[in-house]
Automatic annotation (TrEMBL):
Catalytic reaction(s) noted: O-phospho-L-homoserine + H2O = L-threonine + phosphate
Modified residues (N6-(pyridoxal phosphate)lysine): K61
Enzyme class: lyase
GO molecular-function term, one example from the UniProt record: threonine synthase activity
Gene3D superfamilies tied to this protein: 3.40.50.1100
Protein name in the entry: Threonine synthase
The enzyme's E.C. designation: 4.2.3.1
Organism: Streptomyces qinglanensis
Organismal lineage: Bacteria, Bacillati, Actinomycetota, Actinomycetes, Kitasatosporales
Key words, A-Z: Amino-acid biosynthesis, Lyase, Pyridoxal phosphate, Threonine biosynthesis
Domain Tryptophan synthase beta chain-like PALP: 24-318
A single BP term in Gene Ontology: isoleucine biosynthetic process
UniProt key word Lyase: yes
Keyword Translocase carried by entry: no
Family from the record: Belongs to the threonine synthase family.
Amino acid sequence: RPQWRGIIEEYRDRLPVAPGTAPVTLREGGTPLVPAQKLSELTGCDVHLKVEGANPTGSFKDRGMTMAITRAKEEGAQAVICASTGNTSASAAAYAVRAGMVCAVLVPQGKIALGKMGQALVHGAKILQVDGNFDDCLELARGLSDKYPVALVNSVNPVRIEGQKTAAFEIVDMLGDAPDIHVLPVGNAGNITAYWKGYREYHQDGPAARTPRMWGYQASGAAPIVRGEAVKEPSTIATAIRIGNPASWTLAEQARDESGGFIDAVTDRQILRAYRLLAAQEGVFVEPASAASVAGLLQAAEQGRVDTGQRIVCTVTGNGLKDPDWAVAGAPQPIVVPVDADAAAERLGLV
Ligand code: F0G
């Protein structure tokens, strides 16, 4: 069986790439769609998880980045830049290595998970920590790319959205149609925009008979779309979606309204509960921001907004290893034992 070739080769006819273009790829995409037993039981629905943490750098960003870096290379760029809460920078840094380019990243000081910082560092990116939040970083990145010879690879770059829409294609290809509902976390709002574009295209062109309702969830301390105004000092433990003024705000509202969905908020407490449930009951370790989709689904079910018997896909956007602090915090200390089977068995409660 041939290896999955990455999203550009797998979906070439549906992406804006020239016939002769050689992709810059780490063979991203083709991620697992995992049936979620516990969530199905809790909601009375057929729930699946699209596990985007299985991408090469551990998040969905790789789908957009293969497109953005392929395009930047084709246009002769020698350097790329992005603002990031961590995952975009990790992905940009890795793909820039593949393309032989310099990568600069702007991150909010002290507010990105250690694993993501480690990725950008080990891939050799130039990291600037900005005394501000993500929104400030993005403004600075835009300013730099306007004035200096460096290509912007944030999701305000439309080819990023093109790459990310392939996740919707994969879901339809795997399920045979679109689900009834698609749930995902919302930060800068590029991903909800991308999924909606993908579902719409597959519906227009035949592979899907319908489109899903799009349900987006922001963290309650960083929920500008829900509140209807920018949040000056966004705050949440889910640092990946700690964003107060999303770049794709209007497009996210379009996805919401055209699909008959909604965008709502979940608290950090709900996010952490869903984070633990996913790990302990589904065997899927995600980062806190990713658990916002599942926290949202559970909240909607409790509110009586989920009719039973529906097919639901939750995107879990990033790998739990990126931000393991929350897994360790509050967990019991490991037990120390001598090299002795009887003593170990006793500690395990086997005798
Ligand atoms: N989940 C994770 C793990 C993310 O890293 C992000 C965004 C989102 C969800 C939200 O997606 O922005 O398209 O609405 N992370 C960006 C970054 C902002 O810089 O890595 P979105």
